[in-house]
Automatic annotation (TrEMBL):
Enzyme class: transferase
This protein's name: histidine kinase
Kinase listed as a keyword: yes
Organism lineage: Bacteria, Bacillati, Actinomycetota, Actinomycetes, Micromonosporales
Domain Histidine kinase positions: 227-423
Amino acid sequence: MRGRLALLVAAVGVLVMVAFLVPLAVLVRTVAADRATARATADVQRLVAVVGTATPETVRLTVDQLATDTGREVTVFLADGTVLGARAARTPAVVLAARGQSLTVESAAGREVVVAVQGRPEGTGVIRTVVPPAELGAGVTRAWLVLALLGALLVVVGLVVADRLAGALVRPISALSAVSHRLANAELDARVEPAGPAELREVAGALNHLAGRIQVLLREEREQVADLSHRLRTPLTALRLEAESLRDPDDAARLTAAVDGLERAVTGVIRQARWRSAAAAEGRCDAAAVVGERVTFWSVLAEDTGRTVTLDLAPGPLPVRLGGDELAAAVDALLGNVFAHTPDGTPFTVRLAAEADEVALTVADAGPGLPPGPVRRGVSRGGSTGLGLDIAERAAGAGGGRLELSTGADGGARVVLRLAATPPAPQ
């Protein structure tokens, strides 16, 4: 676009220069020729009084002196046939001037100036001089060169100005394109600085507003998903515990299978909605506040099932590179696994500590421990969905950390969620 604008301006500039300079060049040549003719006419007029009254010898001396001064050939034709000055034939212009008419005509030798002189006894005399082409075009070449240089300079200046103007247009458009691509790649914090003409600034403002609106909508969606997660996990866990406590094994197995199916469906929907825009989920939160709030939430169910909760939280704030909703979902997944895969009365420990440049969340229980072999998504004991650890692992990846699985000192499962720590937000 920038090159096309420059080419357009160059073409228009050249056309304008041609339309302006060609007539001006013709005018310069005409003015130079007229000026030379006027000088020659003025020189000839100096002889009129002498030719009209003086003797032929005096006229001859005066003509020779004028020719020497001007560098032009000067000839005087008397009515009796006498020719004084430079030898020249009687041209049609001289014949016409002998009838009493002064005139200027173009000839092969240049511009011929003839002046009729009245008052001599023998009749009308004629003074003739010729302005050569060199004198007619004196200074024209230099003037044309100056005009050509001026035209080229104006075209170059026009190109420079056009390039600056094109740059002022192209740069905001390029910025808009770059920000739109970043938004398409889920970098919803990308914004464009309004610049350029009013129309482009309006487009930039609209794009920024759109990006902000997308962020608001995604944040509301994540909040709704998080609220759904919080609302459904506890009833599902309680329903599973109730099903497992039934005395009839067949009824217990049937209800447990139904609860497992419901939990798989709910967890799948929640996971799909939560991680559909993982890049948009990036953020930061206080891990101490989020973990403390979720442990308090699960402590009610722990008390109902006779579980002892040991809570060891480092004093906050502990900012991490993960949104609060995502961290809460990971904590819910880990604590939900404790309740789902350990018997009632099994104690568990939740520990949150700052270690170097990361924050470590440890959830350990005194249950039967992890199954042998690698734990994969969709593969777990007891017919569960296997999505709990997957949600926690994805949260760890989004937070710049990792998920570690091991066996605790008392034989139970030990899960460590490590997240990258961030500097505290400025006050």
